[in-house]
Structures are given as C-alpha cells and as structure tokens.
Design goal:
The structure holds two protein chains of two kinds. Chain A is an alpha+beta fold. Chain B has one domain. Helix content of chain B is about 70%, strand content about 0%. The longest helix of chain B is centred in the last third of the chain and has 34 residues. Classes of the chains: A alpha+beta, B mainly alpha. At the A-B interface, helix 1 and helix 2 of A face helix 9, helix 12, helix 14 and helix 15 of B.
Chain lengths: ~600, ~375
C-alpha cells in the first residue's frame, strides 16, 4: 500500500503540519497580548505622545525696538536679511548634503560641520543657520537647487542695523549670538540657541524691553514639520522706540574731536541729568558683529591694544589729577579748614613730612587764595590744605560728592573707581597709610581712580550747587529705570552739612580758570560764561614724575577738562579726557570749548 | 478541465474571507493615503481583480500539471531575475521591478509561488520519514539560487521571505536531530557572514534599532517609534476611520504599504486589530486544514508551504509594526498596498483551493 501513490501514508506530514499550525496559533495569541498591552495598558502614554507629536508651538519674534536720539534720528533700526538654514531631518545623508551645500555656498566642509555642531542639541526638525547675510546671488542659487537640497531653507529675518556705523557705538553696544552660559542665566533664560542678544551698551541694558512682546503660533503639523492647520496665533508686539537724551550733532562732534586719540567725552544736560553726548574713542562698527559666524573679526578687535570695545566714559579708570582740587576745595570749606580769604604762598616747592613737593609752575604762583589756586591749579595750595585735612575727611567728602561709587547711569558694566583710605590700603596691600600719600591724593594723584562719567556727575553736582543728578541715556518712561540707591537723587544739601555758598566760591575759581587767563582758558566761549577745571593726571607716581621732570624728560599725562555753562542757571556740563594728551589746558580744554560752542549754536538755531 | 462537481468543492468561505480582507485593505489604503499622492486604493482594487483572474486561471489547471511543469516555471523565473539584474531600471535603490505602463511588478514575489511548486515537485516522490542530507542540499540550492539573485537586486526583505519556505520544507519532510544541529550551525555561520559581508549599514542599523527603538527617535528608530505611538494611541476603539492623527499627518512612514496595520490600530483600535487577526486566523486555519485533506504528497507540500509563507509574512509584519521584529520591508498579506504581493497571495490561495477541490478527482 505504501507503494501506491494514491494511498500514500501522509499522517507524519499531517502531524508535523498540525505542530507548525499550533506554533502559529501560539504566536497569534502572544501577539494579541502584546497589542493589548500597547493599546489598552499603555494607551495613556502613547496618546500623550501622539498629541505632542502633532502640535508645534513656535515663538514669533518681534522686530527689535528702534533707538533714536532726542530729535528722532534713528540710531538703531532693522533691515531685512536672508539666512540659509539646514533642516537635518530632511536629508537622509547629512554628510553628502553638507559637501554639496558647502561647495555651492563656498564654505569649507569643516567649517560647515562646526556650524552644524553648534546647534547639535536642537531637535532634527529645527532649522540650523549655516550662513547669514546671503547675497542675492546666493539666494537665487539656493532657490534654483531647491529640489536637489530640500533640507536647505532660506529664512528672511529682520537684522539689527546701525545706520551711522560706529557713531555712538559704545552707548548703543552691539549684538551677538547668545552663549550657552547666558542661556542659563536668569536674564536670558527665555531665549533660544541661535538668538541674538545685546552684549553691551543699551542693547544689553534694555534688551528685555527691546525684544518686545514675542507672539506665539500653535500649528498642527505633519512629520515633515509641514503645516497642516493653524490652531492659535498671537502676533508679536514690537516695543516702542527707545528715545535717548543723546543729541546726534553733539555726539558726532564729540567723536570727531576725539578721532585719532584715545579718550572720552561726556556732555550732560544739567536740568535733567540726561546725557547729550557720550563719546569714547577708538570706537567700533557694531554692524560687523551681528553675525553668528565670523569670530575672526571679533577676535581681532578684542585683542587690539587700544581696547576699542571698552567704553572709556564709564569703564575707563584714571587719576583725576587737578580736577580733584574742586573736591578738595569743597571739602576744605565744609570742614572749616579754609575759607575764601585763606591764602598760601607758592614758591614752586614745599617740604612736607620731610619730602619736597613741587608745583607744576616753576618759580611758583606767589600768594594764592582759593579762587587763585583753582584758576592757576596751584599744587602748593592744595598740598597745604591736604596737610590740614585727614585722609578720612578727604575720602568721606569725595564719596559724598560721587567718587568711589557708581553714578547709576543706565549702561552695564560701569566701574566704581577708587577712593583710597588707610583701611582700604591695609586690606588690599597689607601696608600702613603714609602721610605723604594724603598729600598726593590732595592733587588727585596716588591710588585715587575715577571714571569720566563720575567726573561729569561731580561737575553737575557742583554746577547745580549741591543737587546731584543721575546721568541717564534714556529719555523715557520711568518703569524702565533701574532700581538704584533711593538716596542718590536726594538733595545732598538737606542730608549733609554742605553750604550752598561754598559752591559759589569754587565756581568763582572755575570761572576765572576759563575766563581770566587760567589753565582752562582754552575752553572759553564768548558770551557763554563757561566755568571749568583742567587736570593733568600723571600716569606714574608723583616721585617718579618729579625725578623725570628734574632730568628734563617729557612726561605724558592724561589730559582732563571738566566744566559747565553758563555760570548762573547752568545748562550743560562737558567733561573731556584724552589719554596721554599732555596738559589738560592744552589738549582737553579746547575740545570742551568746541562742544560748548556747538551746544550754543544748536540752541540758537532751535530758537 | 473543470466541472460542476469541482465547483462545489471550491473552498468558498476561504475565498470570502480573502475578499473581505482585500477590501478592508483597500479601505485602509484609502484612509492612509487619501489626502496625498494618487488613488492607491483604486489601483489596489484593480490588482484584486487581476488576482481573482489569476486565481481562476490557476483553478482551471490541475495542480498536478502545474507541479509537473514546475521545473520550466522555475527556469523561466530564474531567467527573469537574471534579466532584471541586467536590464532592470533602478527604482528606489533596487532593481526589483518590471514596469508595464504605470504598473510595476516584482518577479521576486512571483518566484515565491514558483518555489512552492518546485519544492512540491521535488518532494512529491520523497517517501522517507526523515530528510536526507542530499535532499536538504538540493532544496537549499533550489531556494538559494533565486535568493542570491534577489539579494543582489538588492532586496533583502523579499529574500528573507524565501527562508521560511525552505525551513517549512525541512520541517515537513522531517528533520533528524543531527540535521537540525547542522542546519542551526549553518544558519549561525551564514548570519555572522551576512552581518559582516552582505548587510548594508542601514540594515545593521535596523537590527540595532530593534533592540532599542527609543534611543534615537528622529533617526532609524523613528519608524518604529511613530508606529507604536499610532497603535498605542488607538486605544480600545480607535480614533475613527480617516481620523488617526499619526496616519493623517504623515508621522507614520510607509503607512499604506508596510505599516498599514498601524493605521488600522490607530483608527480602529484594539477591537479592529482583534477582528483582523481573527479573520486572518480563520483564513490560515482554513489553509492548514487543507493540508490534512490532501491525498498526495505534492499537494500537501504545496498547500503547507503556501500556508507557512502567508503566516510568516503576516506575523513578521504584525510584530514589525510594534517593534518586535526588524523593519524588514515585508508587507502585510492582502492588506498592504502592492500588486505583486497581493497577486502572490492570491496565487498561493488559488493553489491551495486547487489542491482541495481536486482531492477526490484521481481516486
């Protein structure tokens, strides 16, 4: 029977087939259980994942707020620009894609890879900027090869633009891409990788305001990130323009005057404390920094020896030199150490504590009262005054009048300066205070350090006869003001024993300095009653300077001038510092004179 | 050739379930692809008609005749695969398609049916209870030749589906313990060799992905992740026909082809999944029962191999979409879009019905 093909014994085959089918049956049941686990037990988890998948929320960025001067001249605006970006998800072969795109846009592949890595932590559907400020040729080239590189997209975004280039660059500051560290800070935690933020100046100070109110867009998207429908949209609200106290003409003039030198100039509106001009030179063109990918340019400017990025007006620390004689005079009057009749004989040199101290004028000034001493900037007078006052008295008054602490100007990074005391010296240099140092401090030398903005505020304090002001750039809503010392704006006359008429005595000396052939005569403006004081701050110690001058060697000093006008009912103050500019009367005073003159002309034109 | 008596012996319930599943496939292909691309569901409908015609043609001829001519069919199939390698056009990175008008056809799919016939022919006179080494080697050769040609296309997914046919032959013919060990060692050796020589990086990636789909959701594990999300978010009853967000918003890749089961899971939920699985279970059990009804060895082999092939493809696909099997590019029989796969299934079913209705004919 086994040989009969019709009646084959197929039972082993059937048995095996049943065995296999049993295995299939078991697999069916197990599979069903697994689907039960996913669809019933884990339903909640997967349904949340699905929800997250299809909803995309994007932040709509408002164009950055404009910045204008007091007359409405646009100092910072926005222009359209194109950025090429790559969406990694849209290419199956990233390396090949990078090679092709690098060739098209002329970027070396290593550089391109680096740029991609900068945004490595972002999800693959997010566009990563790879080239900014595309030329029109680039845009059309990318457009033409859209089919070949679907992962390459062009993003049109408003870009910060400073129409006057380097004008007021230190005041405005500049923008750069937010760093990883900054993203972790409280201030920038709402920003995202790739965002541009203000790094210095007003761009940083008012960054939170300038970004405006970002909008929000919730879309239904597919897996390619392509939009399938809009769920919700909230438009972005740009901020109102920031209007500054700055006067563009004065600002331009101040910068032009400083060109070729290193220094700073500050013009204050004495009625409000508003800053009409703040120049620091050398300056920079902030337009060049608004780029995510050219750190070379940035590095080269950072490493320049003349520090063009530093705002010398608020961050430059200098010995005040003879400018400090105004402070000394006020201190002496208020402490009762001198009065306007006190006179001192200047013979060119005086010996104090066994050390010789020189006046800058060889042969001396003869008999000097306070007014004469300020006009002639006589050292001997103030050495003698310094001997009568203690260093603690000097420091107390200097602090009271604004030195050694920030003025509170609305710019980031303002320096405090330094008003030395024996306590300070002991703590920082582990050495006792020598009486001779007090004598150096009396003429604004020694460890004393001030910033130009402090000198400007100090001048305003004198001009306003004891009423302080907080210098400010923003002419604007109070809610933007930073929270400062509540006592700062309080009337010092009320809180301390400073007599109003003492200011007039100092101011008389300042007026004579400019108008009666004093050291400040270079700042004289016909009919404007300029009052001022020069300073020539040594950049080396007094002793060394003496030795050098005895040997007929030239000493380059920082050249200061600070003053205000008119004498009665003052309107503006001008402070000028030129590094290594020589004598204050020779370099700084004429520059200040030009600024006073321009202010007067502008005022006349306005009328 | 065919008479009324034979007509009554046709397994009408099997054809019924076949049609139901095919039409269900059309519906979900429609749901998965309707906003984009072409009318895939209509093309699939056309393929169903073609499949039915082919099945009818298969029924007209006695299966013994088909098996007798198997060597010629096999030769023609091999020539077709070789021709494809020489003259075939590159489509989606492989040379696995013949194009007629706008319809493409994969000879590698049809080759499965030819292999089943060829193996049935080979084993029709094999009476021993245990597989001999010579027969084992012969069947490895018969399956291996077209498999290599398909790997060269390269279409590893289809090539892999030839393996269960070979395995099924071994199992049905009966394997001694020694042979099982030899086969196991051979398989491991081939696996190691394959990993190092034949597998492309993306294929290795897929295997790695199987191990941990969550670790790189945007990358290679993306498909599995999205597919699991689709199925999981379907819940008990699903989000409704054409309402699955994963499927409708394009999150699901290859959703009208290899991942159609995920669309079903999302839009019809666990109940839909169970219903389709039950239908398939009924369908497969019908096929396996036919094995027991056959009177001759060749018929038993042909039906059994067909049943195993379809079971394998179904289970692999269903496990693949939930990440329990590598993404191997194996479509879901009857439901996935694709004419060649559908036609192959119809031919297999036709063969089984042929065997069943002629079981008394030669008595």
């Amino acid at each position: 029977m086994a040989d009969n093909p019709i009646y084959e014994d197929l039972s082993p085959l059937r048995k095996r087939a049943r065995g296999i089918f049993l295995a299939v049956e078991i697999l069916f049941v197990l599979t069903a259980f697994y689907y039960w686990k996913i669809q019933i037990l884990d339903y909640r988890m997967y349904s949340k994942l699905a929800e997250k998948n299809r909803i995309r929320e994007t932040v709509l960025v408002a164009p950055r707020g404009l910045i204008t001067d007091r007359k409405g001249v646009l100092l910072a605006q926005n222009i359209g620009s194109f950025t090429a970006a790559l969406i990694p998800e849209n290419t199956p072969d990233l390396e090949g894609s990078l090679a092709g795109i690098g060739e098209m846009l002329g970027i070396p592949i290593d550089e391109l890879r680096r740029r991609m890595e900068r945004y490595g932590s972002q999800p693959a559907f997010k566009a990563r900027p790879i080239k900014e400020n595309l030329s029109l040729e680039d845009v059309s080239r990318i457009d033409a090869r859209q089919l070949e590189f679907p992962e390459l997209v062009i993003i049109a975004e408003p870009k910060r633009f400073y129409p006057f280039g380097s004008r007021a660059s230190h005041v405005l500051g500049y923008m750069q891409e937010v760093s990883e560290t900054e993203l972790k800070s409280r201030r920038f935690r709402d920003r995202h990788l790739g965002d541009l933020i203000g790094k210095t100046g007003l761009e940083l100070e008012y960054d939170a305001y300038l970004v405006g109110q970002p909008g929000r867009q919730v879309e239904l998207v597919n897996s390619r990130g392509r939009r399938q429908g809009l769920v919700e949209k909230q438009d972005a609200q740009p901020s109102f323009p920031l209007r500054l106290h700055l006067d563009f003409d004065l600002q331009a003039k101040a910068e032009d005057l400083l060109e070729g030198r290193e220094g700073a100039a500050v013009v204050l509106d004495l009625k409000t404390g508003g800053i009409l001009a703040m120049a620091s030179y050398p300056n920079f063109n902030p337009n060049k920094f608004i780029n995510r990918f050219s750190p070379e340019e940035w590095r080269s400017i950072v490493s320049r020896p003349d520090f063009p990025l530093e705002n010398r007006a608020v961050r430059g620390l200098y010995a005040p030199g003879s400018i400090f004689k105004l402070t000394m005079g006020l201190a002496g009057l208020n402490e009762g150490a001198i009065d306007d009749r006190t006179s001192v004989f200047c013979g060119g040199q005086v010996t104090i504590y066994g050390q010789p101290f020189n006046c800058w004028a060889e042969g001396g000034h003869g008999s000097q009262n306070l007014t004469d001493a300020i006009r002639n900037s006589c050292n001997i007078y103030f050495y003698t005054l310094g001997k009568k006052l203690s260093i603690e008295d000097i420091a107390r008054h200097a602090r009271l009048y604004g030195f050694g602490r920030r003025t509170g100007i609305d710019l980031p990074g303002e320096k405090e300066g330094l008003v030395p005391t024996p306590k300070w010296k002991k703590e920082t240099r582990q050495a006792p205070w020598f009486p001779g140092e007090t004598i150096s401090v009396s003429i604004g030398q020694g460890p004393l350090l001030v910033t130009p903005i402090q000198v400007a505020a100090h001048t305003a304090f004198i001009a306003r006869r004891g009423r302080t002001v907080t210098p400010s750039l923003l002419m604007a809503p109070g809610f933007l003001r930073r929270q400062g010392d509540p006592m700062r704006d309080a009337d010092l006359l009320l809180r301390d024993d400073i007599k109003r008429r003492n200011f007039d005595k100092i101011i008389k000396g300042m007026w004579e300095s400019v108008n009666r052939e004093g050291t400040g005569r270079g700042a004289r403006v016909e009919g404007f009653d300029v009052c001022g004081k020069t300073g020539s701050a040594q950049t080396i110690s007094t002793q060394t300077a003496d030795r050098l001058s005895r040997n007929q060697r030239e000493i380059k000093t920082h050249s200061w001038f600070t003053g205000f006008a008119p004498r009665d009912n003052p309107e503006i103050s001008v402070t000028v510092l030129v590094e290594y500019g020589g004598m204050g009367g020779a370099t700084a005073a004429p520059l200040a004179g030009e600024l006073f003159a321009l202010y007067r002309r502008l005022k006349a034109e306005k009328k | 050739m065919i008479n009324r008596k034979l007509l009554t012996e046709i397994d009408w319930p099997l054809i019924g379930i076949l049609l139901i599943l095919s039409i269900l496939g059309c519906l979900f292909i429609y749901s998965a692809s309707h906003p984009q691309s072409g009318p895939h569901h209509l093309r699939q409908g056309l393929w169903i008609v073609v499949g039915l015609a082919a099945m009818a043609a298969v029924l007209l001829v006695d299966y013994k005749t088909l098996i007798a001519y198997a060597p010629f069919l096999y030769g023609a199939g091999i020539l077709m695969l070789i021709g494809l390698l020489i003259w075939g056009r590159w489509i989606a990175g492989t040379k696995s398609w013949f194009r007629v008008a706008s319809f493409g056809f994969q000879p590698s799919e049809l080759m499965k049916v030819i292999l089943i016939l060829m193996l049935a022919r080979l084993f029709s006179d094999y009476r021993r209870n245990v597989l001999s080494a010579a027969m084992a080697l012969l069947s490895v050769g018969v399956v291996g030749l077209p498999m290599i040609l398909v790997v060269l296309q390269p279409d590893l997914g289809t090539a892999v589906t030839y393996l269960p046919i070979l395995l099924a032959v071994f199992l049905l013919a009966g394997t001694s313990r020694r042979m099982a060990v030899v086969l196991l060692l051979l398989a491991v050796g081939l696996g190691v060799l394959g990993w190092n020589v034949f597998l492309h990086d993306y294929q290795k990636q897929r295997l790695v992905t199987l191990m941990s789909p969550g670790h790189d959701p945007q990358g290679a594990g993306y498909q599995i992740q999205q597919s699991k999300i689709a199925i999981g978010s379907g819940g008990l009853v699903g989000e409704g026909f054409k309402r699955g967000s994963q499927s409708q918003l394009n999150f699901l890749p290859a959703r009208h082809t290899d991942f159609i089961f995920a669309v079903l899971g999302e839009e019809r939920g666990f109940i839909g999944i169970l219903a389709v699985m039950a239908a398939f279970f009924f369908f497969l059990s019908r096929l396996f029962r036919t094995v027991s009804l056959t009177r001759d060895r060749a018929g038993a082999y042909a039906v059994f191999l067909s049943a195993v092939l379809i079971s394998f493809q179904f289970l692999v696909n269903v496990l693949m979409v939930v990440g329990l099997f590598p993404v191997a590019g194996i479509p879901l029989p009857l439901l996935s879009y694709g004419g060649s796969s559908l036609l192959t299934t119809y031919l297999c079913v036709g063969l089984a019905i042929n065997v069943r209705m002629r079981r008394f004919a030669n008595v």
